[in-house]
Amino acid sequence: MIRVLLVDDQPLIRTGFRALLDLEDDIEVVGEAADGDEGLALLRELLPDVALIDIQMPVMDGIEATRRIAADSALAGVHVVMLTNYGMDEYVFEALRAGAAGFLVKDILPEDFLHAVRVAARGDALLAPALTRKLIGRYLAQPSPARIGGRLEVLTGREREAVALAAQGLSNSEIADHLVISPATAKTHINRAMTKLHARDRAQLVVFAYESGLVTPRGS
């Protein structure tokens, strides 16, 4: 059973998402919160598998809440998915840097929303859609003094290849096909890269791939 916590200051949004989730046999909504501070308290109490958190909220916004979740070892099993609107590129990227597994636009189709919750619960990053890659690429194309550098050498050649493919939105199975290895081996390469780079999840691996220059944003 996938346990989900909803954190959004708009009751109508929470009600709509809860109605969808409650129809699924393998998903249970364990709680709701109206701001990041309340959400953190419930997270520590309920320890859900997935936390759907709005980026912009009163008291504590979603990005700060995500940073605190990522810094709390007791919440290591919680996969954060940010809820956002179009036209918020810098917020989306900061959410990924903070430790979010990905983001969903609030007008997402119901079937895509449910699929995304299941993907997040598995520990995969919600980074396959072209829109997400476009947002990351656009943000990273801007000069930034906070780029990560000098850590590529800790990865083996195969691990670099696997991370670069993950940054392009490929799943473990697709990485395996591309590198002509088994899915289990592909997963091992990704997991070892995460360990070496101290990445919380695949989303942070993707951020690293762009910031380190391992992957270059298209058009840059």
UniProtKB/TrEMBL annotation:
<feature type="domain" description="HTH luxR-type">
    <location>
        <begin position="148"/>
        <end position="213"/>
    </location>
</feature>
<dbReference type="InterPro" id="IPR000792">
    <property type="entry name" value="Tscrpt_reg_LuxR_C"/>
</dbReference>
<dbReference type="InterPro" id="IPR016032">
    <property type="entry name" value="Sig_transdc_resp-reg_C-effctor"/>
</dbReference>
<feature type="domain" description="Response regulatory">
    <location>
        <begin position="3"/>
        <end position="121"/>
    </location>
</feature>
<dbReference type="InterPro" id="IPR058245">
    <property type="entry name" value="NreC/VraR/RcsB-like_REC"/>
</dbReference>
<keyword id="KW-0805">Transcription regulation</keyword>
<dbReference type="InterPro" id="IPR039420">
    <property type="entry name" value="WalR-like"/>
</dbReference>
<dbReference type="Pfam" id="PF00196">
    <property type="entry name" value="GerE"/>
</dbReference>
<keyword id="KW-0238">DNA-binding</keyword>
<dbReference type="InterPro" id="IPR011006">
    <property type="entry name" value="CheY-like_superfamily"/>
</dbReference>
<feature type="modified residue" description="4-aspartylphosphate">
    <location>
        <position position="54"/>
    </location>
</feature>
<keyword id="KW-0804">Transcription</keyword>
<protein>
    <submittedName>
        <fullName>Response regulator transcription factor</fullName>
    </submittedName>
</protein>
<dbReference type="InterPro" id="IPR001789">
    <property type="entry name" value="Sig_transdc_resp-reg_receiver"/>
</dbReference>
<keyword id="KW-0597">Phosphoprotein</keyword>
<dbReference type="Pfam" id="PF00072">
    <property type="entry name" value="Response_reg"/>
</dbReference>
